[in-house]
Amino acid sequence: MEKSYNFSSSNLVNSSGLHNSINSNNVNGVNNINNNNNNNNNNNNNNNNNNNNNNNNNNNNNNNNNNNNNNNNNNNNNNNNNNNNNNNINNNNNNNKNENGSNFNNTNIISHQQVKKKEKYSNNNNKNKSFFGEERHKDNATPDLQRTKIAKWRMRERMKTVSVALVLCLNIGVDPPDVIKTFPCARMECWFDPSTQPPQKALDLIGKTLQAQYEKWQSKARYKQSLDPTVEEVKKLCLSLRRNAKDERVLFHYNGHGVPKPTTNGEIWVFNRNFTQYIPLSIYELQTWMGTPSIYVFDCSAAGLIINWFNQFAEQRDKELERFSGGNNQNNTTTNGNTNNSSNNNSSNNSNTNSPNMGSSNSVNNNQSSSSSHQRDCILLAACSANEILPMNPDFPADMFTACLTTPIRIALRWFCSHSILTGITADMLDKIPGNLSSRRTPLGELNWIFTAVTDTIAWNVLPRHLFQKLFRQDLLVASLFRNYLLAERIMRSANCTPISCPRLPPTYQHAMWQAWDLAADLVISQLPTLLADPNAEFKSSPFFTEQLTAFEVWLEFGSEQKDPPAQLPIVLQVLLSQAHRLRALVLLGKFLDLGPWAVNLALCVGIFPYVLKLLQSPAGDLRHILVFIWAKILALDKSCQLDLVKENGHIYFISVLSSPQIPADQRTMSAFVLSTICNNCRPGQNACLIGNLLPICLSQLNDPDPMVRRWMILCMAKMWENFEEAKWAAIKENAHEKLCLLLTDISPEVRASAVVALGELIGGAEGSEQRTNIELNLALTLAVITADCSPMVRKELVISLSRIVSSYESNFVQVAQEIAQEERLRAVLEAKRLEELRKSKKRPSVPKISDADHLNNNSDLYGNGSQSSVYGCLWKIILNLCTDPFDQVANRAQSIVKRISSKFTMEELMSHNLINRTNFNYNNLNGSINGLNSSGSGFLNSSNGNLGGSVNGGNLNSSNNNLGSGFGLNNSNSSIRNTFVNISRITNRDPRSPTKTKLGTQRSPILTSSTNNVGNNLNGSQLNLNNNNINNGNNNNGNNNINNNINNNSGLGNQLANTFQSLSLSSGLGGNKTNKMSQSTSSMNTSSQSLQNDFLMVSDLMPFEEDELYSDYYEWSCNYFSKPMMQSTGEDFESFESIEKKWKRQRNEMIIQESKEAVQNIIQQPPKSFSQMTIFAEPNGQPISHLQFHPFDNILVVSDGLENISVWNYDEGQRINAFNNCNMPGTRITSMKLVNDYDPSMIITAADDGVVRIWRGYESNDTLKMVSSWRAFPEFATNGNDPIGRLILDWKGDSGLVLVSGETPDSPKIRIWDVERELGVQDIFIGTESVVTCMANEKRGPLFSAGFSDGLVKLFDQRMPGKYSCVSTLTEHKSYIVNVSMPASLGGKTVVSGSSTGEIKFWQHSYECSSTTILNNDVISSFSVHEYAPLIACGSQNQRIKIMNFTGEEVCTIRYHDGFLGQRIGPVSCVAFHPYNILMGAGATDSIISIYNGDSKSKSNVDW
Fold first, then answer.
1. Between the CA of residue 500 and those of 194, 497, 855, what are the distances in Å?
2. Above pLDDT 90, what percent of the chain?
3. Tens digits of per-residue pLDDT, 1028-1053?
4. Cis? peptide before 1431, omega within 30° of 0
């Protein structure tokens, strides 16, 4: 049985005035709400807004399914509100389960992560799976700057009408002389006939009745009556009310039924003391006495004259005030006191020009702001226009306008009956409708409820948004009066009167919603005789709200931002008051908010906020999911609601949701987001969440299986301790930093980025605390593992976190940078000297011997000591390493840090070194040794707090499977290079296989980065232990722990940290630099100080981000997730352009595959006799063609030359449609290229021998071209343009999203597997040979892959096996270089076809050590390709021919000449490639000519899809 929560209108009353029309009966102190389920439950609810209303809500369900839930043995749940009063709320369990079938369960809202999981598991064997399509790949976690504008839904100038002046000029018994009344005529005033009582008594009774009618709408206002007053009495009354109201609103109600019409000079009439004369009262004077803000109600004939003159006087007054303000601003040289006095005098003088009584008013209004405006801050309601008189129908009261404003239901029903065909209904019966206005279960209460919904809806749909906010959401009383004014317009227009308002409203008397109101009134009135005859008769409720919700549901099915907003939105909010309809209304509201930020803006403008804020006090579990969802949508758009939530203790609700592990993950995710928003730049929110024990709750769920939960738990904590020292200390006591460090290797890139953000927010504010200082430095060093992360989003956050360390310890980093600059200056001088000596001796520059390097060491005191060997030196070199990150957003931010630190240098230092230059930055002898850390005085290793613990030797850091290298490369045991820690240049280690070879060179980027060479066993003697379960404190008396890695020697973070710290080592390059290659031009190093200075200044000026500390926008980007649709989609729009295009492409692709199958069968049955040349074209740059890739379904061929250029061709038309640069370093070349995603969106993945893998999207046009991602395949071995890693080979495994890379690295070659979904390196496979990989191929939808080697070996690997044991088979029959290998699907995917440079082709099957078939080709081959489905092999030769064979070795054809090219021979073939499906072959030659050949004689050469 479902729980339900009974909300009364008083519980939802707020200062916006939404429900004032419902709360009519006032009592003092408590709001008693009687829920008559079993006729015995009294529940006391305290009103939050001091509007204490007595509301009787009879919860009578139509199905009589009201069951009472016994909670705490007395049906009461005690909740404390802001006034510390007990709200006893009865939870009525009824059987109204989601009326009209609107079910909302945990499957209605699903997270994107859950969708991804479903796709991942359902598409494991789906070749259509696409990669690099996540949100982070679209914008690299950069939020959209064109954010949705937040509507001004919150009334900053919200106010109350605190004083009401009731001025009645009736003079009962005497009619005014200028109005001739009919007989009979209307006589009732406030529903009372004054002729039945003596005049004075009747006048008093009318005044009291009018006051009572107003008090129903604003009970707390101060009411003053002025009955048949004089001018002085009106003046005294107005001044008194304004004085008490101060800056709040005052209402002036004028009933002029007993006086003449207003004059054409802008005057209304009152009396003299003896009632012998009518005395005029100037509207100008009335304005002066009333001040602003004010609201006026004029119920008299020709009231439109008052409006006209009021506006004219207000405009005149505003102009005078503007002139006065301008003059006052010119005289601001006087003191404040004198200025105020002169202001009052000027104001008095201006007033006295029109009225002698203005002086006293200025003494009251001297505190009013100069920005106040009578036109803007005054609201007027008039009964009729300037040339009209009030209606005199005796069936209605004389004050019909006042009756509409104060008793709308009574006058509306009487008017409806007069226009209805209903019979047998009398006025007395209408006055006896059962119930009261505040009880929605009664006939009268339901009518009042419907009337409020109808008038709100009409106003919402007709009025401009700003006017709706001002009139219907700013003030309780004003909102009620304007709702009722809409009724007055309808009724009085039927009596030939046109009510006027200022501001003027559009006509609403013919709005369609009035028909819905008439129907509701008709249903109630038709039951009235039965209800009056039998008090126990059942009242049949109106289906109004059910029908309106259905209409809203229909709109949701077809509505969009481009269409008109739903007319029923205000009604949905009114329905939230009903327990029976509440869940359905919330679900529909949630669906509406899910349409986008524009929908949230509309909902906030209509007034959703106070409703959902109050609903957070509901204990009903069935509302929890949708409430959390709605709040996530609101805060995703407008984060300014955080203070409201803290004030109302709303954070407690979300903490309770977060603390329940049994609650679904998506609800906890949204709750964590809401709490993070509460804490975002909000100290009260941070403090409230800290007191609410949010921190331990988040920490307990860091290992949740859902990555979205982990991500938002981390971000929630990050926002809680952002710039909040108390929370930072609490986090340290909870060891939060240690737990977050374990997430730096999480499988989700978003979780890793969140962990980096959270750790970065912990940094700062450690001044004076040695413990915090050590913890911060240790955290910064731990973050070094992120330098090897595949995701540029994560690396970008790393740079930002490191910038906080630099800002906190800026002086230390300046010192480190100066020392490095000084050493570079010395090295540059020595290098220039050496080059000059070589030039004089006319010898070729050569690599210096080790003794030369030792000479450099002996001439510098910087080696072996100084701050470079400290923590700051290590961190600075990490930052320098990031300055040449292959992704621009990462590199630019790192460069900004370097620029900021270098700006602290003196001009002398700038002229004496080239800190940031275009030449190579050789730091091979910088002493960054970990041994030196002990003596650096940084407090890193032997600190009293946060000690990282014992020594690190080779055995500690290097696991058998994950060691990235065991040697550092120098034979001189005394050299400090062997103990260095971080490298700043992109100079790789000396090749361990050739001790005399040194890897030197330059790079294009101005900032030099560290190579990530493995220091392996050379880290002996350091005191960094990353494998301890706890970090030792040494002699720490405080006993505080630092980072607890809690990892063993062979697991995730431990190995990654170990490898990272080993890899971030100084290069072993010795001697001089090679000359710099920029745009393939060579120049010598200029050693003059002027040149160095110019280099520095030029590059520094190009660096962006000059702020002291970089700002992370990752949180804002993450919040965008909740602004997008999150509810489960009901289905695809099959009529949309995208859907039609998708369907067309799917059909086209299926047709291509089917046609290719037929072509393959034709070839098997009848092999082709020749391959006809289909197209020929040439690359304009004249470079040899190195790679070809056919798009499987589009007529696109992607071509790469031997350098860095990629071209995209339409091979059917022979037209190049795009060309772009791969952005690899000068001096390097593209070594591998593949196409990612056979279906949309297709991308290009490249590998270059600068060690970087790059992903390109939108390659068909430069307008859409974008680098999706890039990373160093072997970050432990950085390289440069002049000395590449070697041939970096890449293979793409599209069914599982794995990138296999291998290259000629300084240590023993290996194959590394990167998971592009996780964006992590998942496995290193050791190949067990010194030869390098030349080619790779993988089994389609299987775990096997093969690799060919330079010494002729072919190996088969199983990626499921551990790295050392992955090789399952080795073929040793080849004796020469393996050109290519293939595992074609036509042979089952497990048979390997290999071709060596001598022309030998072998077939061998899985688990066999010898080949099954050998094809001997007499020609030396330079390229080799096998068709994926057809039994075809192509061999290209440098001897200018291409031989095509089948799998039995029979020659299909030999291509030697170009067709139609005057018989010209083809050039030396550099590459060949088959189309994935069609019988097409592409061939590239060293003369830049590309030829396309067609082997299917039955196919059309040009197919236009």
1. 28, 10, 98
2. 44
3. 333 333 333 333 333 333 333 334 44
4. no
